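Hey team,

Filing this mostly as a record. A colleague (T.K.) asked me to run one chain through the structure pipeline before their review meeting, and I want the input and output archived in the tracker in case anyone asks later how it was produced. No errors, nothing strange. Just documentation.

Input sequence:
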Amino acid sequence: AALMLIARPSSIRTLSRPIIAKATSSRPIQVGATMVAAAALAGSMRRLMKTKQGRKLSIKAAAAASKRDDPWQAFEQLPLKLGKTPPVPKRIPHKVAFGTVEGEDRGAPQTLINPPRYREDDLFWMRDDDRKNPEILQHLESENAYTNHQTHHLRAPRETIYKEILSHVQETDETYPYRRGAYEYYSRTIEGSSYKIRCRRKSGMNVEEVFLDENELAKGKSHCEVGDFDVSKSQAILAFTVDEFGYEEYSLRFKDLTTGRMLEDVIPKTSGKVVFGNDEKTVFYATMDEAHRTDKVWMHRIGTPVSSDILLYQEDDTVFDAGFEKSSSQKFLFFSSSSSETSEVWALKLEEDGKQLLSSISSNTVPKYCLRPRKKGILYEVDHHSRDFYITTNVDGATNFKLVKVDAEEAAAGKEDAKWQDVFPYDADVKINEVHCFNSFIAITGRQGGFSQIWTFDPSDPKSTKNILQFEEEAHTVDIGPNFDFGTTKLRLTYGSLVTPRRDYEYTPSTSSLQILKQQKVPLYDRSKYSSERIEIKSRDGTLIPVSLVYREDLIDKKKTNALHLYGYGSYEISIDPEFATTRLPLLDRGVIFAIAHVRGGGEMGRTWYESAKYSNKARTFTDFIDCANALINLKWTSSKQLSIEGRSAGGLLVGAVVNMAPRLFKAAVAGVPFVDVMNTMSDPSIPLTTGEWEEWGNPNMEQGYNDMLKYSPYDNIGAQDYPAMFVSSGLYDPRVAYWEPAKWVSKLRHFKTDNNPILLKMDLSAGHFSASDRYRYFWERSLEICFILDQLKCLK
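Output structure:
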């Protein structure tokens, strides 16, 4: 499922037994004011539903409905509203300014367009920052009603697909425990329950302690997402954050794990991250400004008023986000300021008793120091081991990053000669991502040959002990798992591929041995039936673009074209890696090939891959995708009538751009939370995330940025031409891509297009950027998108 949840990140940045089909139940559907039968309904039940008593019974039935067996009752508001025609919004003339606007920070004044330039947007009125305007909410409900009507014929297949997805899910399951001090931590899921149950037990014992049941936390809420949690040094106090609306504003709460009692301390509207100090009372967290930018890091002492919390770090430059992280050694807290292209890190030594730190702050001497002042274009991240700070950085022209170290004491003293020393020579063919320090070894994550990799080495002898972990599949995805024991001699990691479900491994660097701990169970999945391939396609400028494909061997014919669903992203240096997803199986099991175009702008081939498709070169992301689609057609993998595409968030931008540029190339398109109103959004610094993303897309308030972005902004390049059938999804409370972007885009597409293909908008009125937090509801929503794809490709069988 991770592939379907790729986000437009802030500042850089899947259930066991077959389900028994139950008898068709009564689900009346409303068309205007007329009640009609949804299917062949029993007459007595149909009559009952028209009575007050029947309505009361239906409400009770909905409340008790099993999310597994009756998703219609569980997730839909019945009677279901149908709209035969799409809503047509009114049009109100409105001029959007680009350039200098008095009272707004739109960039360096001398670089702005002055006098400002204006563009007309007669759908601008659909923006409501408060999400409360009755007219707009009615319009969005009408969009949902129209989508319900246009997909009414898919009701039975949708339920089939939903139950099919569930049949591949080990609903009652638990994660492999990880060690943290005297305890082992893990989470469980139970068949029929929507959320995780977070548990622990003392090592060597089998007595379970539930420390956070998210199902209890979610009761009475339409959305519930736990962002982060941490425990105090003695592991007696739990701190956790929760978002109850989908707007990614998290409430920080505390629980006494010895008594089970919630503490009175509650801190609202945090960024979602929480870290304990090295005692029972000290907690660090961050807050955001009005534009949803993390700008302040605070220290809270449990039991004291929030009003007395201490501000430790503040970032005033709106292009930068503030952040914080505890070192692997637990000895330092790092504060950071970062943009897409520049970063700065400060270190604060953590005492065993937070009172000492509090005393220092009270005397106005916060003992933090900068490791290297920010310099445009220089990025770095830090961890601590013994006497040294280990740093991943692009300094000295190391575009794909390298690993360096610096003496911690010299850095603390601010010595000018505290030089960063290369641990390994820079290798342009290897992308270094993160460094993770342990007492006896150090692990590095990165990329080589287009795939994620992990290296380990002994810090006392780096060059002769450096080792890359080897796996049986070349095309794989690997990452470091939960590792909280600094003194461990083993490394926890996760692994998977397009055909291999997730595995948890434990690696011992001293012996180079790899032990499997857990293999994700996927019921009714026979791995031997599926194959994956990696091919390269030459783009129009000669660059080879990797494409990953996965399919079911017995259902495709390589002697002729096949249905193919092509996924893309291509922004923020985010890699769409070859990972397994249960939600993909309904496509593969109906003979659809699933492909990923690893286009430039992503990070699959390293930082250089990303930087080659930014600013004035952003169009390469879109032409790469079009070139991949054309090549797949020319190579007889598929045909235009059998080709659908998909992207989410910035991948939705890709979809929006390519359907403008090559609309007849695709049969259908799915765009999830699509970033499509690029010009308007990127010109307005009051919109969440905008200022931090000027280093991603450019700033349209400047001449160069204006000209570059206007060439590809999907909303601004809609034309009078045929478009493929399209399914667009969004969430009302999305702070990353506001609901009005897809709402306006869909309305404008319908206004200009010259074909009869459907363009549908599904607006989740209780979710944000990452779709439903309820796992069953997520599968339910995804089943509709899958049905739409299969229906358009004529593979719904």
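Quick notes for T.K.: The chain has a mean pLDDT of 90. The chain has 17 helices and 41 strands.
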